[in-house]
Amino acid sequence: MKYLFNLVWITSFLLLSCSKKDEPTPEIVPTNLSVSATVSTDNSGNVVFVASATNANTYEYDFGNGIFQTVANGNVTYKYPASGTYTVNVIAKSANGKQISKSIQVIVTVSLSLIWSEEFNTAGNPDAAKWSYDIGTGSGGWGNNELQYYTNRTDNASVSNGTLKITAAKENYNGSAYTSARLITKDKFSFKYGKIEISAKMPVGGGTWPALWMLGSNINAATWPACGEIDIMEHKGNELNKIFGTVHHPAKYGANADGGNVVITNATTSFHKYAVEWNALSIKFIVDDAVFYTVANANTLPFNQPFFILLNVAMGGNFGGTIDPSFTTGTMEVDYIRVYQ
User: Fold this and answer.
1) Domains and CATH numbers, the chain
2) To 10 degrees, the CA torsion angle through 278, 76, 68, 291?
3) Is 197 in contact with 334 (CB distance < 8 Å)?
4) What radius of gyration do the chain's Cα atoms show?
5) Rounded distance, CA 124 to CA 163, Å?
6) 168: how many CB neighbours lie within 10 A of its CB?
7) Cα–Cα distance between 4 and 8 in angstroms, integer?
């Protein structure tokens, strides 16, 4: 009897074990997903998101601007860097990977604040606390076969009557046939993202090549073009009134750079506002408050780090072209530079 009892018990145990083992694991599917958004009324760009769902372990947020974040409890505050209407998608996931999603739209207004400016109100040399100079011809004319020698003389860069004047001149100087100036804020001021606006008037003369631009602050370590370059404005004296906006990076640089242009009026006789709006998603080139070209930014590009400012007038070179033999002097005037974030 004891043997029979044990046999019955073992058989029952095995049958019960097999029955439990063969049962499928129940699927846990999230349900009842709700998502809400509270946009800050102070125009800071802050938005408070609250998501909840039954059987959800995690919530994946796509903020509608290329930024993603995963949170456990569904609550997150995100600060948008720019105004806009964004479609936000939330995915609620259960422990076994089942998911549901929901999208909502948020309208965000972001007010920019002035963080740095140069008004050029003090006559004399440019402010040494803000500006230094690139001196000389550089390697191969700064890499573009330019013909000027950059100096730090007041003949080539000075402030008077409320504007900075960078003057290119035809003169023999240290082996070059022309002189000019290139001012930089390197190691004095740089910024990451925001808006930079420069009011300027272009020089007259075939072969002049004025530029308002920026370089990545890591240029010493990364070198160009890995550091990235943002040309806020370039103008050719040989193509009067045509304004160029361009970016350079390892995949697109030099003659293959990514840029656009627009034709304006009175570039050499009137001040115009040249600007760039820059964030993690895009770089927008603007003249007189009108966007004329947009470059998509991405985390694979070097435009997600601090950049410093450069102002110069080059002569000739690959971009400036043939210099008018009758050229004597040409001056770019800059009324102000303002940086907002």
Assistant:
1) 31-108 (2.60.40.10), 114-340 (2.60.120.200)
2) -20
3) no
4) 30
5) 10
6) 32
7) 6
φ/ψ of residue 71, rounded to 5: -130, 155
Cα 281–chain centre separation:
8
Q: How far apart are CA 85 and CA 70, in angstroms?
A: 22
Smallest CA-to-CA distance from 230 within 179, 168, 274, 272 is with 274
Catalytic positions, written as ranges: 229, 234
pLDDT tens-digit profile, the chain (341 residues): 444 444 444 455 444 554 455 556 578 899 999 999 999 999 999 999 999 999 999 999 999 988 999 999 999 999 998 888 999 999 999 999 999 999 999 999 998 999 999 999 999 999 999 999 999 997 667 789 999 999 999 999 999 999 999 999 999 999 999 999 999 999 999 999 999 999 999 999 999 999 999 999 999 999 999 999 999 999 999 999 999 999 999 999 999 999 999 999 999 999 999 999 999 889 999 999 999 999 999 999 999 999 999 999 999 999 999 999 999 999 999 999 999 99
Task: Annotate 35-60 with b (16+ C-beta within 10 A) or e (fewer).
Answer: bebebbeeeebbbebebebebbebbb
- What amino acid is encoded at 68 in this protein? F
Which H or E element spans position 5? helix 2-22
DSSP β-ladder status, 194-201 and 329-340: antiparallel
- Give the residues across from 48 on adjacent strands: 38, 77
Q: State how far the Cα of 204 lies from the Cα of 274, in Å rounded to an integer.
A: 18
